[in-house]
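User: Predict the complex with adenosine-5'-diphosphate.
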Amino acid sequence: MSHVLTLNAGSSSLKFGLFTKDTAPKALATGLIGAIGGAATFQLEDAQGSVLTRGDMSPKDGTTHASSLSAALKELMARFPDADVRAVGHRVVHGGQHHAEPVILDNETVDGLAALTPFAPLHQPHNLAGIHAAQVAFPDAVQVACFDTAFHRNHPFVNDTFAIPRRFYDKGVRRYGFHGLSYDYISGEMERIAPHLLAGRVVVAHLGNGASMCGMLNGRSMASTMGFSALDGLPMGTRSGQLDPGVMLYLLDQEGLSTAEVSDLLYKQSGLLGLSELSNDMRALLASDDPKAREAVEYFVFRIRRELGGLAAALQGLDALVFTGGIGENAREIRARVCAGMAWLGIELDEARNMANETLISSDFSRTRVMVVPTNEELVIARAAVDLV
Ligand code: ADP
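Assistant: Here is the predicted structure with adenosine-5'-diphosphate placed in the model:
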């Protein structure tokens, strides 16, 4: 039996999954390396979520993406000695204007992805480090890239551009949209469980630590709340979401912040954390009595409702609203608060179904269906790798 490895490389973390290489890939194990470059940690779980290995990495192994991946893979191979990795599928944040599908990576394609680094300076270099590490670890395996931007490449011009001089659009300053692997997965699940809804107007709310919403017509992305970067749209765990660009100018000119400081402020100190001054974790905020925590959650819910109205207008109506991501899949209170007062959009929640976390959580009288569909980005990568190999 041959296998596929999926790899999701962040700034200081690497998530990987081992899958069977067949038409319906099955997960065998998932792993997480954390704090690369610092006190690196490693955890490996089987498909049922039971921990197989957990602990610290030696300082030597945990220094770089390549060294930590190599050490983690040794452990993986010790647990799955028959694993025969023929393909490695990579999550890559930016595919630029042209990648609307996953691709097999050759040197030229990797160079093309490296050239997109100015568009995603905080993420693309880590994805490339993951690719290089996997090329070293599996020199004979086919390397495949799956892009967070790809699902959105069909946006109509009005949802693809900003109203700044056109030369910047031509240079690639566009509304790319992200979380594409998650939306791709949800679209596939909807095709399976509710094809009549997918054929219409669907808004998917991917609400996790990162959060965005996507308006789909007939299963294709028409609009996304995220734009040029993964900062736009909804407030997130630590990211600001939509911001008047004048605020950025003020921070730079009047507060005297450097671009690196503004970047840190907007990516790491804002969103739920910035507003609550308590936590980026929705569970902690919902459990807190602190008025600032309540206001942070209120802002999160308000912005989702505002974007929902905007996306429904872009789609000229709404047939289904789908919740996914850690918050969307689990936070019943957030779902209920988003849906409250949305009767004008044909939304009526069934409280019992919502509390029971059922797949369909709208009432039988609701003109717009409301659903909860757990996402699985790793499976999208594994399937793409199998398809291309
Ligand atoms: P990431 O974007 O890092 O993949 P996740 O999709 O795992 O994030 O979502 C993480 C978020 O989901 C956190 O804010 C966490 O508090 C929230 N979350 C997870 N479970 C629950 C729950 N039962 N109730 C409320 N929020 C939850």
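The pocket of adenosine-5'-diphosphate is lined by residues 208-210, 237, 281-283, 286, 325-327, 330-331 (CB under 6 Å).
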